[in-house]
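Structure tokens please, single chain.
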Amino acid sequence: MKRFLILLTMALLLAASLAGAQTAPAPEKFLLVLNKSDNEVAFVDPASLKVVARVPTGVGPHEAIVTADGKLAYVANYGAQTPGNSLSVIDIAARKEVKRIDLGALRRPHGIIEVKGNIYFTVEGNRAVARFNPQADKVDWVMGTGESVTHMVIAAKDGRRLYTSNIAGNSITMIDTQAPNPPPGVQTLKVGAGAEGIDISPTTDEIWVATRADGNVHVVDPASFTVKQTWVAGKFPIRVKFTPDGKRVLVSNAQGGDVVVYDAATRKEIKRINVGDAPIGILVQPDGKRAYIAATQSNKVIVLDLDKLEVSGTIATGREPDGMAWAGN
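Here you go.
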């Protein structure tokens, strides 16, 4: 009888454990979409493709980044007619703005990334890149590019080198964050008219740049910091995004109404997907299964199935969606 009771107790404990595992809530995942004209970030459930929350930001939010621990989002408030000079800090779990960082004389913050716990962002009005140190709770570093409309910023795998795209400068700038002021800490490379879209390979550090005015995509070698290949991508290519595995690259053609998928190694076009509605911002899920394309003029985000390479849905997010970020694994 005693043996029976022991076995019964063990069976009940195992059943309770399995039931608990089955009922444990899955970690929350959100697509964060910045609606520029609504001055907000929309939290989108990627399963239902529905907006589940809206959080106010500063005026004209353009780009955002979620911290590596998944707890906070930093939003660059670009402004509208009046230049913006703040970053909104969003608590992901609470779904609210918990802080607004006053940038003082730094105007028109735009591109934004996290590197080793620090937040780097471009400031167009100052032709520079700045760094916000969350531990010190202040901007503790600013480096000028000397180029007009320093717009987007990316980082190499080692986190030491930053690259910016400079729209009116028709250039990209490399900044060595651990080197002295130029030379050799800052180097600029002319690539083409209207350099805006830029991304870096997660496996090779190869840089791809889209120059919107001439319709070209350029591949830049990180070692020599020279252009090693150029071709026409379409009408007004405006964003470039590598997939997480580094095997493919997406380019959005704002005036062509399509997104082009390239093989990163061969540069060959895999497919040109017609999405219409002036595609601009691109975000790829961490698992590489979906891409989200911000169609700013039509107030929606287009969902691309990256296995089938076709449009699989749309999300009505708000007025003028643009920058996006991903919260959760």
